[in-house]
Amino acid sequence: MNPAPTNSTVAAGLRNEVLVSDVTVSYNNGTVAVYDATFRLQAGSICALVGVNGSGKSTLFKTIMGFLKPAQGSVTIGGETIASAQRLNWVAYVPQSEEVDWSFPVSVWDVVMMGRYGYMSFLRIPGAADRRLVEASLRRVEMWDFRERQIGELSGGQKKRVFLARALAQQGRVILLDEPFTGVDVKTEAAIVELLRELRAAGNIMLVSTHNLGSVPEFCDQTVIINRTVLAAGPTVEVFTEQNLARAFGGVLRHFRFDESTIQKHDGRTVTVLTDDERPLVFGKDGHVEYSQRNGREEVVKQRAEQEDDE
Amino acid sequence: MMDALAVPFHYDYMLKAMWVSALIGSVCGCLSCFVTLKGWSLMGDALSHAVVPGVALAYLVGAPFAVGAFFAGLLAAVGMGFVKTKTSLREDAVIGIVFTTFFAAGLLLISLFPSSVSLKSIVFGNLLGISDADVSQVVLIALGSLLVLGLRWRDLVLFCFDPNQARALGLNVRLLNFTLLTLLSVTAVAALQAVGACLVVAMLVTPGATAYLLTDRFGRMLGLAAGMGAGTSFIGAYASYFLDGSTGGCIVLLQTLVFLLALVWAPKHGLLASRSKRLQALKAALGRPA
Amino acid sequence: MNWLSPFQYDFMLAALGVGAVVGIVCAVLSCFLVLKGWSLMGDAISHAVLPGIVLAHVAGVPLPIGAFCSGLFCAVSTGFIKSHSRVKEDTVMGVVFTGLFALGLVLFTKVESDQHLNHILFGSLLGIPRAQIIQTGVIGAGTLLVTLALRRDLLLFCFDPAHARSIGLNTARLNYLLLSLVALSIVAALQAVGIILVVAMLVTPGCFAYLLTDRFGRMLWLAAGSAVGSCLGGVYVSFFINGSTGACIVLLQSTCFLLALMFAPKRGLLASRWRRQAALVEGVPTGKRG
Known about the structure:
The complex is a heterotrimer. By secondary structure, chain A is an alpha/beta fold. Chain A has 2 domains: 8-241, Rossmann fold (3-Layer(aba) Sandwich), CATH 3.40.50.300; 254-310, no CATH class. Chain A has helices at residues 7-15, 57-64, 82-87, 108-114, 128-140, 156-170, 186-201, 216-219, 236-239, 242-249, 298-310, and strands spanning 17-26, 32-42, 45-50, 72-77, 80-81, 91-94, 174-178, 205-210, 222-226, 230-235, 272-274, 281-283, 289-290. In chain A, the strands form 3 sheets. Chain A has a 6-stranded mixed sheet with strand order 6-7-8-3-9-10, with helices on both faces. In chain A, strands 2-1-4-5 form a 4-stranded antiparallel sheet. Chain A is globular. The N and C termini of chain A lie far apart (58 Å). The relative contact order of chain B is 0.16. Chain B is mainly alpha-helical. Chain B has one domain (2-204): ABC transporter involved in vitamin B12 uptake, BtuC. Chain B is built from 14 helices and no strands. Chain C is mainly α. Chain C has a single domain (5-283), classed as ABC transporter involved in vitamin B12 uptake, BtuC, CATH 1.10.3470.10. Chain C has 13 helices and no strands. Classes of the chains: A alpha/beta, B mainly alpha, C mainly alpha. At the B-C interface, α3, α6, α7, α11 and α13 of B face α2, α4, α5, α9 and α10 of C.
């Protein structure tokens, strides 16, 4: 059955939209970090914000969160200004692990409860509904058993989950994630991606700032590529092209071209590519290291070809 | 009119005060460049308070005050380093605890043995009534510090900028750290005489900060800071004669004024310069074809 | 000598009461300051109140108002200069508060005043007049009430200002609120321990509690408890040894901190040494096998 969209989902869809138009941001010391940035995100999307260090990625991120005031242009969420969207608790934020003081004397429970502050009265005294939501959020990220722990006593993946639970408890429509996968194990990464997909299905917007290019096509349906201004924005399949990435990253992007490398035969099953966003380490068929340039390594190529022939 | 302005120069104690403070000002000025670049501003504050029990004890037993101050300052620095490495407390909190403990100990000593040393001269300095023995100690400290700085300033700059590189080059980083701390605590004692414990940190920070706003070269920064420290100290001591006010207060107030002037009008890093730069950059970015 | 004799004097009872109030207020704030990394903000603001006190005296305004305004001015201008120049925050703080303190000193010598500089600097808990007891009580109670009522917001502001902002809290207002509370607590504590040692009251209890627990609620109780204990003990001890009251209070607080540093169950030196040894004992056989 294909249910017709009800009025409420249409209304939610209309309201849930991030619109960045003509945003220019400059700092006190005179640098203009971002200029004329324009893009639009619709309800139910996971969008990657991609760019090199210093491309204005984090500036744009901070502007969308309302920490920086654009010198020109505007950011609206569901037609509201950032300030009122924040008061409506629409914007949730998952910080980078490095930004958090992990020795701070708060427990997992305390941190997730902070997500509910916007709904509480002036004195921030949690009600039963708040407790229930915090519990549900903690259970959803499988951190309920750790609720009494001090946050510094968790592993990297667990720490990330706690802050995701906080975003869940906040019930924000737009969730901003800053480098969500650094310092996170593979299992947690998969769990996070799964959770984000569920949230997307529920009509939320996730904006993920990342330099982990490989993971972008895996789970982001939208991509914004930025280098001091928006170079390309739209569906990942259209935007995530080598040409666009080359424009954004210029000489910074590390290439590994199979036809220039020492690899001689590859059918997709024999080559292993290992990378942590730096230059990839590539092992060929026999488990030996492959070099990205065959020029200057003619000896190696010849020797390996001979071995191949012997077998 | 001219006669009136020249009056301070007719008094020996005024002449002495002016020259001594200029000497202290120049040494502190040089050191302040390292302090501000190393991010040790609060260390200067802490050491200047932490030397107080040393000074009190030294007077009590009749030793030269510089010796007592030196040991107290060093003990405080070691204490701070120890607590910092052993706990996850922030550095500023550790500094706060240690220096207040030392200062309180000094205060208690002075309150228990009131005649040995005047609290007032420690807290506010006593440049106008400085004894000849104290002058010779200050001069000795100043010349010694200048000598060490003159010989070793390049190493110290490297140590402030990139301690790992310094270590890689085979420099003794511990020794450099120790040297800088020692220089800080002995000049803190000298400055204690001039402006008192509460204001020593100004002598150890303000000239460096001012010079940092004015230039991008370390050599020039050193010269500017030393010149400014000496000039303001000399003029401040001179002006205090007419104001009949606290010598230390006048010196530091003058230094703050110079800093404020630099803050607004410095050619490259001043408020006015960066504002016009900001507007220009904005214009350039917006004028670009989309 | 009778151990209960201090309690027979009205001035001692007043001192004990005021000391306890001031101790609690400062201790509660110190928890936030230590976590925010603002430990030395207390130092800066406490020195900066001096010109405000003098000017308020001249203008005939109640002294706490003047002190509060100039303390806050120091914090605000430090923030402004930091964000508009390339000088580091700690350096800016050093420049600004010493500048204000120097201004206060120069003004003080030019103004006829019934205030003793010594009392402002070192406190005079034992000779505190009735009007000031009430003043301290009111300011202290008000500060404490506001801090405790808004403790959750303030804690969030210290822990994760970005999240605080994203849920629509006005972090700029929280920033100034915390600064104002610090300034108010300093105004209240001035009588008890004086400008120079108030920073100890605003740092040490928080650090002490931080070493002992990793829950914020417990941290508040521990800090307040140690501060009250130290204040009462300090006043009591100073009666017998006839030493500076402020210094005795601070030294007792430092002793508490040192004990926690040694014996804290989780973060203490002994605990971490035992942990390390236990890990070694466990680690050796596996290492051998490997």
